[in-house]
Amino acid sequence: MLLTSTLACGGGAEGGGDESLSSREQAAFSGVNGEYCLVSPYNCKLQVSGGNRVPTNDPADDDWGLVTGVPIRNGHGTVVGTNTRASAAFNHGQTRTFAGELHAFAVSTSNSSAGWLPISAILGRTSFEQKVGHVSALGAGLSKLGCYAIRDAHDPVLELKKVVYDSTATHERAGDYLPLVRANGARSANLIFNVPGMALGGPAVDHFPAGTKFQRLDVPTEHGVPSIDIPLWVQDGAGRYRLQSGEMKFLYGYVIAATGTRRNGWMAYDALQVSAGCP
Question: What is the value of pTM for the model shown?
Answer without folding.
Answer: 0.91
